[in-house]
Design brief:
By secondary structure, this protein is α/β, with parallel strands linked by helices. The chain has 14 helices and 24 strands.
């Protein structure tokens, strides 16, 4: 049975209580891969709050603390009496054991990190279809020494006697490993067992269901009022534009601020694509000279970002007043932003969130406090991969759905030192060549980002029997899952040679191409 209100508000079927694990969001994503809606809440969420949400299951995340340490994060002990199935993961399992009368101790000389084969003692319930000897990812320095009354062992490893435990009658389960990570070979089988068989959830968190609910919710919230969207051309704002067009039609106005730092041909492409091809009204704001003038003589990267962010806000403020009035501001806020959110206000009369920050493709700055919009954030329940699925279902072409991430300040932070019109033209041409050749080689979707960087130094070269003194271009290609960590992409030598030859031959002002082979960490993906 779907947990959706008449206003299109969906209640979570599975709640993840976060105890500080780096994998808490990943647990939520894995549950959603089973087409079951999940959310992440703080570990201090009370049993009463959980009772009101009426989830069908609760998962306690891992965390860096020891349950026996002073000040360790604890959940409301009433949770164990709610009658809702609970799965404790790593720290979550230890907390369950400790609060229910068992004992957890430091695993002296037997800490377990990395892959470990799991020996299954009870292949039912949680461990149904989990292969004996399957690999599980361990990361713990504490272990369960004694189980609470009524608990039994489900599995063990060489170093961990109680690797998985359960109280079958109370539907309480714990695992000492991390089933959510890709290294755990039968981890998804375990998550499906908990979600489907133990909690009895229905697989109703689908793309079509989300779109239907989001359209209903936007119409209920907005009524006949006007909505303004700052459009960047990225997958988030593009998907949001298509969704809002479906929901409220001509009540939507998109604003594209051309600050002069976009890739070659991109402003023209966006206007043609949205305004003329799909009849989504876009107000084009030409502000290139204004932004460039503000960056004159500026070389510090943080100063660049702040200037670009501040100027974006000024332009947005001026143009929204000119085009308005608008009651609502649409933002492409995603679920990871909600989890980490801070600095939002709530209107005490309506209970709606009021914008004090704009999450645009600039990711900087904030709207003036006297520019009061109510926020429309229909994507705030989604992870990035879910946004891409929604975009596809709404008709977004693959060139937008699967495009590489692009920094908010654009090419301005891929030009080290002062940004000038000449350098921008040079970098645009080089960047286009990189993308064209990577696509031609069939590698575009295997790489997280592929782009060019222009350095503020010159080197000697020889072209046409003449001495040159020109800029170098850095080729930066990285592979990553989420951008948090990244490794440099091992491009074929012939591809790098083609890119180098084309840039040197076709781009004025460049006589050298170099390759960045730094991972993240210690480097960052962008150079500024």
């Amino acid at each position: 049975m779907s947990q959706v209100s008449s206003e299109g508000q969906r209640q979570p079927a599975i709640v993840i209580l976060d105890f500080g694990s780096q994998y808490s969001e990943l647990i939520a994503r894995r549950v959603r891969e089973t087409e079951v809606f999940s959310v992440v809440l703080g570990y201090s969420t009370s049993a009463e709050e959980l009772r009101k949400l009426s989830p069908k299951g609760i998962i306690l995340s891992g965390g860096p603390s020891s349950v026996y340490a002073e000040g360790a994060p604890l959940c409301d002990p009433e949770i164990w009496s709610l009658g809702i199935p609970v799965l404790g993961v790593c720290y979550g399992m230890q907390l369950m054991v400790q609060q229910l009368g068992g004992r957890v101790v430091a695993a002296t000389g037997k800490a377990e990190y990395g892959k470990a084969p799991l020996e299954v003692d009870d292949p039912t319930d949680l461990l149904t279809n989990v292969d004996n000897g399957s690999t599980m990812w361990m990361s713990h320095g504490d272990s369960v020494q004694a189980l609470p009354e009524g608990f039994v062992r489900l599995a063990h490893t060489a170093n961990t006697p109680e690797a998985a435990v359960a109280h079958h009658d109370r539907r309480l389960y714990g695992v000492q490993f991390h089933p959510e990570v890709v290294h755990s070979t039968c981890g998804m089988a375990m998550i499906r067992n908990f979600v489907y068989h133990i909690c009895g959830c229905d697989p109703d968190w689908t793309t079509d269901a989300f779109i239907e609910e989001a359209v209903q919710q936007v119409r209920h919230q907005v009524g006949d009022k006007r909505v303004l969207l700052a459009l960047s051309g990225g997958v988030d704002s593009s998907t949001l534009a298509f969704l809002l067009k479906k929901a409220i039609g001509d009540q939507l106005t998109c604003m594209f601020i051309d600050q002069g730092f976009m890739r070659k041909g991109e402003p023209e492409f966006l206007m043609e694509f949205f305004d003329r091809k799909f009849n989504i009204h876009v107000e084009y704001i030409h502000a290139r000279e204004r932004f460039l003038e503000k960056l004159k003589d500026i070389t510090d990267p943080e100063q660049k970002r702040k200037i670009i962010g501040t100027e974006f806000i000024r332009v947005f403020e001026e143009e929204s007043k000119r085009l308005g009035p608008f009651d609502y501001l649409a933002q492409g806020t995603l679920y990871p932003d909600v989890i980490e959110s801070a600095g939002t206000n709530v209107d005490p009369k309506t209970g709606e969130r009021v914008a004090v920050k704009i999450k645009s493709h600039h990711n900087v700055g904030g709207l003036p406090k006297d520019l009061q919009f109510k926020l429309v954030e229909p994507l705030r329940k989604l992870f990035k991969d879910e946004v891409r699925k929604v975009g596809r279902s709404l008709g977004l072409p693959e060139e937008i759905v699967r495009r590489h991430p692009f920094p908010g300040p654009g090419l301005a932070i891929r030009i080290l030192g002062e940004v000038t019109a000449e350098k921008l033209d040079c970098l645009r041409d080089a960047d286009l060549i990189v993308r064209e050749e990577v696509k031609q080689a069939g590698l575009y979707h295997d790489i997280w980002q592929a782009f060019a960087v222009l350095l503020p130094v010159r080197s000697v070269g020889v072209m046409g029997d003449k001495r040159t003194y020109a800029w170098p271009i850095v080729l930066r290609c990285v592979s990553s899952e989420d951008g948090m960590t990244a490794d440099w992409s091992r491009l074929p030598y012939d591809l790098m040679e083609t890119i180098s030859n084309r840039i040197v031959n076709e781009v004025n002002g460049v006589n050298r191409v170099v390759l960045d082979i730094t991972s993240k960490p210690p480097g960052t993906i962008e150079w500024e």
